[in-house]
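Thread: quick sanity check before group meeting

JM: Hey all, I'm pulling together slides for Thursday and realized we never actually wrote out the predicted structure for the chain we discussed last week. Dropping the sequence here so it's in one place. If anyone has concerns about the input, flag it before I start.
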Amino acid sequence: MPRQPKMGDRVEALEKQMENVTTTLQGLALQMQQQSVLLTELSKQTGKRTLEAEPYVGDLSQSESRLAGKKNTSDAMRMKLARLSMEGAKIHWFNLLMETEDDLSWEKLKKALIARYVGR
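JM (edit): ok, ran it. Output follows.
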């Protein structure tokens, strides 16, 4: 009858496997960051925007559809909800827009988002 591995041996084997998984994931994350930088640089050189605009337009469409049935939702509430979905460079852009644009409405925000991230 074959000898069963001891619990300590099994734990060590699992820890080694997890080390390998962690190393692989770190390598993949680094590659993704490098590819993102390269894509951004290439888009600057060619003058074309990257596909990063897609999520912003999707977020905007999703927000619109969620609020479609809520006729009494104020522009101020719509703006707060939009701010909650933003992160990174987009939230900094939004804050700057809020500071510099007089009477920023939901319609103005939609147009500014499309102009900024889609280029229309």
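AS: nice. Residues 53-117 form one domain. The first helix runs from residue 7 to 46.
JM: adding both to the slides.
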